[in-house]
Amino acid sequence: QVHLVESGGGLVQAGGSLRLSCGASGGTFSSYHMAWFRQFPGKEREFVAAITWSGYQTYYSDSVKGRFTISRDNVKNTVYLQMNSLKPEDTAVYYCAAAYISRGSWYYSDRDKYDFWGQGIQVTVSS
Questions:
Q1: Mean pLDDT of successive 10-residue segments in the chain (127 residues)?
Q2: Whole-number Å distance between alpha carbons of 114 and 110
Q3: How far apart are CA 12 and CA 93, in angstroms?
Q4: Neighbouring-strand partners of residue 3
Q5: Which residue pairs, CB below 8 angstroms and at least 24 apart, start in 44-52?
Q6: 56: burial class by Cβ within 10 Å (0-12, 13-18, 19+)?
Q7: Cα 51 to chain centroid, rounded
Q8: Can you tell me the distance from the alpha carbon of 21 to that of 80, in angstroms, rounded to the nearest whole number?
Q9: Most exposed: 9, 20, 104, 124, by fewest CB within 10 Å?
């Protein structure tokens, strides 16, 4: 079982940047595909970005493509989300998620295909 802890959130002005980090412990990090989701008040958690266990393949939602970049460091057991050109509509709680590569049925944007979640971190973008 892997334990995920997000960091790096906070308040930023529109047009600014933030980098979220998600540290993993208690498991073999390279055994997991990783992703970021976000949740707006009163809404379901939505997909933001995902990266395969090797880091070779990445996926993004249309709303963040070209502005956000997901990456991972399998030595540091950490996945990152670099967020540039932030907009007020990016304001949400951001969650890190991990999916076993052995699951076989993983689909990057399906939150039901992830096995472990972090506690979430607030990102607020002011206009």
A1: 96 98 95 97 96 96 98 97 98 97 86 96 97
A2: 8
A3: 14
A4: 25
A5: 45/95, 45/111, 47/108, 47/109, 47/110, 47/111, 48/81, 48/94, 49/81, 50/108, 50/109, 51/79
A6: exposed
A7: 9
A8: 5
A9: 104
